[in-house]
Amino acid sequence: MIDAKPPAIVVLGTGASQTARRIQARYSGALIHGLANRVQADVAFTELSAHLRELYSSNTPIVALCAAGIVIRCLAPLLADKTVEPPVLAVAEDGSAVVPLLGGLGGVNVMAREIAAVLQVAPAITTSGELRFGTCLLNPPAGYVLADIEHGKRFVSDLLAGSTTRIEGTAPWLDQVELPRASDANRAIRISPHVSGNAGELMIHPRSVIICVNAVRSDDPIAERIRRALLEAKISPLSVAAMLAPVSMMTSARLIEAAHVLDVPLRFGAFPDGFETLRSHDEDLAISIASHPVDVTNLGQARGTLTVIGLGPGSADLMVPAAKYVLSLADDILGYETYVRMAGPFKPNQILHCTDNREEMQRARHALELASTGRRVVVVSSGDPGVFAMAAAVLEALDAGQSNEAWSSVDLNILPGVSAALATAARAGAPLGHDFCMLSLSDNLKPWAVIEIRLRHAAQADLVMAFYNPVSRARPWQLDRALEIVREYRDGTTTVVLGRNIGRPGETLITTTLANLHSDQVDMRTMVIVGSSTTRSFPRGDGNGEWAYTPRWYE
Ligand code: SAH
């Protein structure tokens, strides 16, 4: 099954935070959207109506932790247009009431029940068919899908008006439902992967069909061929549980695109037993039908994903939403223990692999290995993953293991983060406002002589310099030596910014000068920004220290 789009949980005040987090934990990938300056959230917005309308128009399920009336008023202008109707629910801030408002056919009552179960309250269900029959016939459980919603609505109102129905096929969830059944009814609920032309039938398709693709030719309109084959076999495209292809086709862009167009999961591996395979004219395609919905997680493997993300300097609001999203979907999270902890909280089924900071290559290989088995793997770094961090280590491992086909097939992505130099610069003002360079003062992975040469050249070129890894217990003298070199080229009055634990508890920021800078003000959690000849500072209006900046022009 393809995961449903995760809901946006909208909060207006801190009073709702706890309820919001309980709901968030229920839905993979759900983000909390908070009113800017009022609540800490994954996504900030400034105007509620505009934000709700945007979510609604993009068909995103909305769980709004505020009065139902507010939500209705905000969305009212859009309600005449029936092209999209995502589930929309209002939930009381304290979690005491769950009210499904819109999206009856998009599963709003199912969501209301799910959220009510989390909050241990009764959902305010008002849909008559659902109240009468104890289930929404138009919302079958996972593994089944309704063929036609408009038709379904008429079918349910006919039943409410007194019609009876038969059940054709296997629908175990209907056993407990008090439907007006009659074996001779002229209406039927039919559970079948095939299409039906009978207007008196409510068609529900089990996701029991697998499309096996054995070869894809170049410029092959594969999605179109699948559609045609289904049409010939009179099978509904809604019955397709997955596409299955040999492992050797894992990186086929055409195949990936076809699965996207058809909106079905793509799996790779050997063909399983227990299917009836239809004869087809197309030798590269086979349509296979099981007697029950197919659990795709047991069908071969997915193409694994490996995403290398940056957490930003520390606080959650400086992590990019795309990184939060992949974290919420991850099966495995790898990284230096401190950073993995920072990336939490995690769900019970997520596996954490915490390692020492120095085992980067081993961690990179482990990540590729896990992803090559089909898992969704995330490697975390602080700041940006490409700045003195894990992205280069992962690429180095992949480069060295190029003959490893399983590694090369992994869907690898790198997501940027706010690097320590940028986070520190923003706190201080704009010291990186003109040309600058980033240097690591660590001689663990490069000779000290190289660092000295680079320092000299950067100092000579009058670049602003951001020093990463300025000192550590094992590297006590390096910063003093670096400053000695810089002082050969730069005046003692040069502006220097020291950011320590930026975005983390106990953050400190000091704006000083090169002459006044002492290495004992600096530790391994400090970012040192040494200004250029044009970097300057002036007192802040609130009397709280200074603003430092480097003008955009140069003389
Ligand atoms: N990938 C990270 C850098 C890793 S190197 C990034 O892009 O930020 C580690 C060094 O980064 C530390 O020694 C320190 O100099 C700096 N650093 C990382 N996080 C920091 C923070 N929150 N505040 C100040 N400096 C930080």
TrEMBL record:
Every Cobalamin synthesis G N-terminal domain range: 51-129
Membrane-crossing segments per the record: none
Entry keyword set: Cobalamin biosynthesis, Methyltransferase, S-adenosyl-L-methionine, Transferase
Pathway: Cofactor biosynthesis; adenosylcobalamin biosynthesis
Tetrapyrrole methylase domain sequence ranges: 305-517
Record GO biological process: cobalamin biosynthetic process; methylation
Domain of life: Bacteria
InterPro entries tied to this protein: 4pyrrol_Mease, 4pyrrol_Methylase_sf, 4pyrrole_Mease_sub1, 4pyrrole_Mease_sub2, CbiG_N, Cbl_synth_CobJ/CibH_dom, GbiG_N_sf, Precorrin_MeTrfase
A single GO molecular function term of this UniProt record: methyltransferase activity
Keyword Protein biosynthesis: no
NCBIfam families per record: cobJ_cbiH (TIGR01466)
Name of this protein: Cobalamin biosynthesis protein CbiG / Cobalt-precorrin-3b C17-methyltransferase
